[in-house]
Amino acid sequence: MSLTHLQRLEAEAIHIFREVAATSSRPVMLYSIGKDSSVMLHLARKAFYPAKPPFPLLHVDTTWKFREMIAFRDQTVSDLGLELIVHVNLDGLEQNIGPFTHGSSIHTHVMKTLGLRQALDKYGFDAAFGGARRDEEKSRAKERIFSFRNAQHAWDPKNQRPEMWKTYNTRVAPGESIRIFPLSNWTELDIWQYILKEDIPIVPLYFADKRPIVERDGMMIMVDDERMQIAEGEKVEDRLVRFRTLGCYPLTAAIESSAATVPDIVREMLTARTSERQGRLIDKDEAGSMEKKKREGYF
Amino acid sequence: MAVLASSIATDTLQDYLAEQEEKPLLRFITCGSVDDGKSTLIGRLLYDTKLIFDDQLATLERDSARHGTAGEAIDFALLLDGLEAEREQGITIDVAYRYFATAERRFIVADSPGHEEYTRNMATGASTADLAVVLVDARQGILRQTRRHAFIASLLGIRHIVLAVNKIDLVGYDEAVFAEIAKEFRAFAGGLGFATIAPIPMSARHGDNVTANSAHMPWYTGETLLGHLETVPLAGQDLGRPFRLPVQLVTRPDQDFRGFAGQVASGRIAVGDDIIVAKSGRTSRVKAIVTADGDLPAASEGHAVTIVLEDEIDISRGDVLATPRDRPQLADQFMAHLVWFSAEPMMPGRSYILRTETDSMSATVTALKYQIDINSFSHEAAKSLHMNEIGVCNIATQSPVAFDSYKANRTTGNFVLIDRLTNATVGAGMIDHPLRRATNVQWQALDIDRNARAAMKHQKPAVLWLTGYSGAGKSTIANMLEKLLHASGRHTYMLDGDNVRHGLNRDLGFTPEDRVENIRRIAEVARLMTQAGLIVIVSAISPFRSERRMARDLFLDGEFIEVFVDTSLEECARRDPKGLYKKALAGDLENFTGISSPYEQPEAPEIHLKTAGREPGELATQIAEYLGKH
């Protein structure tokens, strides 16, 4: 009757969800529509069964997500009968902030980090679930499952609360908040195996298909709408690709792949020689850039 | 993961994954003193087991050139030290978690910091580990941190220890050096209760005895580190342990369903089994074990489930469902080992929030029995615990807690202490046993209650708590206030800080520890008096926010009225009615508030009396008017 590996991870996440629901006054789940969010949502539904998760989903929309992601989001919320809050940083929209015009760094800071901070303040959320995993990146590997943020939403990596056993300190003063990462101890492979085992719906962009691609700086960028300017010398080609990770479409590179099903993807994962954040342009700006963004309030 | 892939045929993917699922998990930490090579060792382990992706390797090579301390070679520590401050200073500040698997087992490794300053982070990693790899620099031998980490590992219930005698290449692969260190380690760690102690000579930088046997040490015929990690016997789950389920929340989606959600902490439960509710002693029977994947016939340690009972009984978060044949302890006083994390020392008498896995309440350390010297492991008398110190103490909680001893159950025997003001986690505790007096002294219910007593006096009880510097005018104002209230027919009593020190608190001095106890006693006496229906005026410097908060928490909402008598320190020193400032400024008086001991101003007092240019009578009237209105 000993738990298997995925059962152990599942039980740990369920325990975390329940602790937050029982102790915080206004929790929310950050829903970014990716595979990790899909797994997180699945776990949240399990944690409170037969009741529904006692918190809404929040999507901070940069307005540059793949169209298929938005369609998937709306379908999921309607199928499951969940409350979804969509927040867009209107100041950023007014200034026409975008990845092509302002670069990945400013775009992410204004539309994602500041947008998130606005939304958390606006609704007074004191606890927010995120789907980050420790195996994604070096500074994440250092972060607690219950990660404390001050009233300015800043993370202080040099002064994290001790996190002993599963005895979590969930107390915050007004204005402060906690980010909670129920998938902390999951690896990318665990996520895929769990999607396979539990048959969890995910955005079709994860599966290989012929898609219109432009090669730019060695990255394969998909042309998702007319806002993408095709420079001279560039050409749009239909290529068999899929995405290993999803974000804003101009900042997320595709990989060549013919993996069209979840078992195909798991098989591909088992032989992968690069990490998943390889395809994330925002991580490349400088070493330690993830930590910097997190200190500013990014997830 | 890539290392495993080549052997997979397409049609056997499901079988392969199922097999992976069943692999046992070993959680371990690396610890030891600064610069003993902990991060380097894990980096080497991941590198040799081919668990580093190409792009990560490229980044590592780039970073090694920039920050590295290994000359031209790859600096493996940079794989782990992910924080900017760590890379700049070349040290590890916080725990990094890494995940890897071999053909035999899965591993979660926590790379923990060596600096004494970051002991709390090492403890964080150790609290969930089964094994600790304690590194020693072969040139340095056993250091203070080696002993500290081995001791904390044993205290937190880690069963297995590996003594990694690292940098053996720098002492010419000398067997005698290794033997000497191993002998010294066994001499003190032998008494710490580990199930296995395995000394291994190695060089993390060059990979000797990490994953492959070293060609440089023919004299060593034991296992490599990885070999040992793959084979050390794990204490599988003992399902014979008594059933425990700490209740996380009550699930009530509609009128017909009421379930108790939690993760089984130990043992096994099946439908039809009898259970007992630890706090109330009520019993019932398990009707269903509900999960989103369907009802289960039984659940065991680690399962996250929702339990439905046959009977409607009152159970809430913080309670524990248990087997009636072997119940948890229930007490409001117990003895525990305590590790202190905060720069602010632990003071007996101060009120903290005590948090078990699902329960939370006010608690105080009633006695610090002794502190443990981490070099000699001897017991030493102490008045307070400072950061990174370990002690044994008695703890009293405001309401009874259900628990087991930590030795019997790591999940139901642990707790953390939280600072009431900053909400910081300031300490972690491992419960030893309940205190006898707690089980024998019961709360006596009284028929005449506070309301009845207050009604007879035609008044609402209250405590007016005057705080401020010595010489601020507290006693003068309090005296006038009492005369005003008395004249209007109120039943009052005045507790003056100085007067109380002549009797009840005669045994207390002015150290921070004694000040805390002084305020605790005054607050408890004031509480008894409000229960007698009185309006109590307290006049005491009460310099610490934490104790004023503790006092406030003893009373009903609105009953505690904090009055900040705000006279500047300069003005108090000028008045100096008792000549104390003169003495303190001359250095003849220790621990004098404002001069040699801090005063923490109230942040949101009910009444803020700015005394400058106002008469005591006017100020007393202001308080009386507030009382009239509320």
UniProtKB/TrEMBL annotation, chain A:
Keywords recorded for this protein, A-Z:
ATP-binding, Nucleotide-binding, Nucleotidyltransferase, Transferase
Gene3D superfamilies tied to this protein: HUPs
Under Gene Ontology molecular function, one entry of this record is: ATP binding
Note the Pfam families from the entry.
PAPS_reduct
The annotated subunit structure for this chain is: Heterodimer composed of CysD, the smaller subunit, and CysN.
Which EC number(s) does the record attach to this protein? 2.7.7.4
- Similarity-based family: Belongs to the PAPS reductase family. CysD subfamily.
Classification via HAMAP family: Sulf_adenylyltr_sub2
Q: In which pathway does it act?
A: Sulfur metabolism; hydrogen sulfide biosynthesis; sulfite from sulfate: step 1/3
Function according to Swiss-Prot or TrEMBL:
With CysN forms the ATP sulfurylase (ATPS) that catalyzes the adenylation of sulfate producing adenosine 5'-phosphosulfate (APS) and diphosphate, the first enzymatic step in sulfur assimilation pathway. APS synthesis involves the formation of a high-energy phosphoric-sulfuric acid anhydride bond driven by GTP hydrolysis by CysN coupled to ATP hydrolysis by CysD.
Name the record gives this protein: Sulfate adenylyltransferase subunit 2
Residue ranges for the region (Disordered) are 277-299
Which major enzyme category is it? transferase
InterPro entries named among the record's database cross-references: PAPS_reduct_dom (IPR002500), Rossmann-like_a/b/a_fold (IPR014729), SO4_adenylTrfase_ssu (IPR011784), Sulfate_adenylyltrnsfr_sub2 (IPR050128)
Reactions catalysed, semicolon-separated, are: sulfate + ATP + H(+) = adenosine 5'-phosphosulfate + diphosphate
Report the CDD domains cross-referenced here: Sulfate_adenylyltransferase_2
> Could you tell me the Gene Ontology terms of the biological process aspect for this record?
hydrogen sulfide biosynthetic process; sulfate assimilation
Which first-to-last residue range defines the signal peptide? none
Task: Indicate whether Nucleotide-binding appears among the record's keywords.
Answer: yes
Give the matching SUPFAM superfamilies. Adenine nucleotide alpha hydrolases-like (SSF52402)
Domain Phosphoadenosine phosphosulphate reductase, residue spans: 27-253
From TrEMBL, chain B:
BP GO annotations: hydrogen sulfide biosynthetic process; sulfate assimilation
What highest taxon heads this organism's lineage? Bacteria
Q: Name one GO molecular function term.
A: GTP binding
Q: Where does GTP bind?
A: 32-39, 166-169
According to its UniProt record, what is one Pfam family this protein matches?
GTP-eEF1A_C
Asked if the keyword Transferase belongs to this entry, the reply reads yes
UniProt-annotated binding residues for ATP: 468-475
Reactions catalysed, semicolon-separated, are: adenosine 5'-phosphosulfate + ATP = 3'-phosphoadenylyl sulfate + ADP + H(+); sulfate + ATP + H(+) = adenosine 5'-phosphosulfate + diphosphate
Protein name as it appears in the record: Multifunctional fusion protein
Gene source species: Mycoplana azooxidifex
Its taxonomic path starts at: Bacteria, Pseudomonadati, Pseudomonadota, Alphaproteobacteria, Hyphomicrobiales
